[in-house]
Known about the structure:
Distance between the termini: 41 Å
Radius of gyration: 18 Å
Shape: elongated
Amino acid sequence: MYRRSTARVTEVSKDLMEVKVKLPISYKNRNYVDSIFGGSMFSAVDPIPMVQLINLLGDDYVVWDKSAEIFFKRPAKEHLYANFIYTLEELEHLKNRVKEENEVEIVKSTYLTGKDQNTVYCEVRKTLYVADKSHYKKKRALKMKNSNSTES
Length: 152
């Protein structure tokens, strides 16, 4: 499905801490007023923060997209670029929060910019749910048990 967004992952660092994406303007993603369709902008950004975080945290965690907001700043009539970055400090802080709270929500913002990275065309804020996997499994089992007992 990501290919249909018309975006392309152009670079992934060896440690997965940084991913770069290019969204070229083309006949496939132009809207009625000849700028990049907002849905293409969102689709270019949508899966990356969650997939990146799943791989960075590893198998002891559950990561889900919880919500998203998109803020259009100006019409995009040129190729767009996005950088997705997690830092070691950010990951360590997140792991500590999950250890203390079992489950947390974080917000990651991504900016679609021109090649110079100075002009922002769009901002996407993703709210991600992160939980300790064993806590998540217990929570789901309890929810299933409670829903089955209310049906009886």
